[in-house]
Input
Amino acid sequence: MLINAFPQMFLLLDTMPMGVLVLAPDLTVLFWNSMLTEWTGVHREQIVGRPLTDLYPDLGAARFAGRVLPIFEGGPPVIFSPQLHPHLIPSVRADGKKRIQQTTVTPITINNASCALASIQDVTDLVLTARESRRLHQQATKELEQRKSIESALQESSEKLRSIVDTAVEAILVINTDQLVEEFNPAAEQIFGYLADEIIGKNVKMLMPEPYTSEHDSYVQRFLQTGQARIIGSDNGIEMTGLRKDGTIFPMRLGISKMHVGNKVLFTGILNDITEQKRLEQQLRNMAMKDGLTGINNRRSFDEALAREWRRMQRECAELSIIFIDIDFFKHYNDTYGHQEGDSCLKAVAAAIDRSVHRPGDLAARYGGEEFVVLLPATGINAAVELAERIRQTVEELSIPHTASGAAPHVTISLGVASIVPDHGGKPEMLLNCADQGLYAAKASGRNRVKIAKEALAA
Output
């Protein structure tokens, strides 16, 4: 078996958290690593020495074999992308999902013979995230960068293994049980900002911010005691934060494997900087919290903020105020001027409300239809009424014509205000209902005014 013939050559490949196999020109399998065995259930003894097409006949088709065979004659590396070839070596994950793969096939030379090295990455989570992103916003996936595959050339000596590590897109670190860094590839240099000479021989904790620095010792001990090949995270690792040389902190995904070199135990960490992915996720979340027409916060954003601030005001024993706002005779406005002008009116009123709210903790949102709401943490009833009157005047000063209004010849709003010091027995709906009563009172008394309900919960 080839792995017994080249133990030094394949030691690192057999412990990497990705699928790796080596093919001869007739597509005979020369090496099949432990990760492929874990993914497929096919043991190395079942496949090494046999053509790959015995177990996977579909790979004999021209779109696969026809692209791989030229590699043995000096052709360039080949990438099988997850979009066109998502299941090159079929396997199912623990969650029941079919594993989506990205595969790179690279030419290598072993004992003066041309061979091909295939490295297979599980990109299931990344692809599913991209699909969900497209559902939320079709343009979002344009900003999502596909993870790049490892392109490495296996050489006959230790330099061949070094080339695999040095050309990897992922950062690769090797540390010993004393937590000292023994390997630090160029991708790690680029991500962390350190040269390898500045890191090798140093404690790996210098690459971690708190709380990971303090917790790292226990991770290593647990890793040694369990004897598992993958202690931290799942197949795709865990998310944590790294610390660059310049002091900046960044999000990353880390997977760790254990390997034995003689009597020595080493840990191989493979990590990716996921700053861009996190930025996109936050952008998508922000889009989900904005009203599509007016651009201000939406009902979902308000509901989350209300629940959060209700709990905070409970802890601080402080007042929480709400202003409910309704555009007067808005149905008449739409009937008179049309829905396009109605949308323009909603945008103008929303902007006027939003720019009237200045404090960082305050929030203005579209509640639904022509209704708006303003949430005011740590604000008493008098200050809330004062702000409501200022909002009413700001909208009136827009001077948007409204000949069908029964309140004024221009667009106006009615506002209801309520305030409460939340206690542990109450619910936010109490405050909402009270503000709604104030709004009803404002409408009933002629509109274009601010009212506090008779049942106002002022402290």
About this structure: Residues 171-279 form a domain with the Beta-Lactamase fold (CATH 3.30.450.20). The first helix runs from residue 2 to 5.
